[in-house]
Amino acid sequence: MKEVRLIPRLQPNIPIEAETISPDSFAGKSASEIGELPVWKGNRKCRLSEFFDVKGDVPVEINEVRIVIAGNVPRTKCIGARMTGGEILVEGNVDMHVGSQMEGGRIVVQGDADSFAGSAMRGGEILIKGNAGEYLGSAYRGDWRGMRGGLVTVEGNVGNEAGSWMKDGLIVVKGNSGSFTGIHLQNGVIVIEGDPGPRLGAQMKGGIIVVLGKVTDLLPSFYYKETVPELKVKEQTFKGPFLAYTGDAVEKGEGQLFLLKEKNAALEARK
Asked: How many structural domains comprise the chain?
């Protein structure tokens, strides 16, 4: 896999929208041609080379393209949007919409990602080694179709409404999550290894949420079903026992919450 390096210049105060930072856009182009690709700063159309120096060789095949962004880009949005293959590595923090609507390939963010990471994605993989903002793997405003496939892993914490309107795929959060995790969940799996915020699974109709931390605010519209000794989801086995709940009854939902009994023994009184 050949590597293209983007070396950031000074990030502007107004965020730039750079959907063209993608293996799909880079494949088969020279470094100078990549520099001429359009990005938007507010309502002004600019060239990528105004914000990045471009180095390296670019193969023709999308799946052979590896883009390395060598530094923090906290004011650059939409990196990897709609990408279908290849790889992007961000050696720092990134702005909103990273990997939104992506269909394939892999994105690694070594720092933090802002809101809407992986929104409406259909496939591929996103790994965020820091924290993620609001609406991870969610639907966009006014839509009812969130993440539809793929894998998102966050090694830190995430903000509110992770997995909103999620239809398929897997989200793994190794830290804590904010309020309304899995709101309107339709299908797919969310794993929270830390503690979730209030209103977990609100209005979910289907899918699975696994919590290895402590739930302090379980909605009354979830009903205890059984205790299971272990749990296998998406080819991963979790040692229990787990308290299993079904809901959200407000939506006549059949979603499943699995809460590690060791951390949530106080909820047994709700049986």
From this structure: 1
DSSP for 65-86 reads EEEEE-S-BTTEE-TTTT--SS
> For residue range 159-168, what is the model confidence (pLDDT) as tens digits?
999 999 999 9
0.90 exceeded by the pTM? yes
Q: Is residue 107 part of a domain?
A: no
Identity of the amino acid at 63:
N
CA distance 172 to 151: 8
Residue 227 CA: distances (Å) to CA of 13, 182, 220, 242, 247: 52, 22, 18, 6, 16
Strand 44-47, strand 38-41: pairing = antiparallel
Question: Using CB atoms within 10 A of its CB, is residue 113 exposed (0-12), middle (13-18) or buried (19+)?
Answer: buried
Alpha carbon distance, N-terminus to C-terminus of the chain:
55
Residue 227 pLDDT: 94
Eight-state DSSP code of residue 139: P
- What is the C-alpha separation between 44 and 41, in angstroms, rounded? 5
Report the DSSP pairing between strands 223-233 and 236-247: antiparallel
Residue 212 CB neighbour total at 10 angstroms: 19
DSSP string, 227-239: EEEEEEETTEEEE
Please give the Cα distance from 17 to 19 (Å, whole number).
6
Q: Are 5 and 11 in contact (CB under 8 A)?
A: no
What's the CA gap between 36 and 34, in Å, rounded?
5
Inside any domain, residue 98 = no
Question: 218-231 pLDDT, tens per residue?
Answer: 999 999 999 999 99
Cα within 13 Å of Cα(18), Cβ side: 34
Domain presence at residue 167: yes
Structural contact between residues 88 and 70, judged by C-beta atoms closer than 8 angstroms: no
Residue 179 lies in a domain: yes
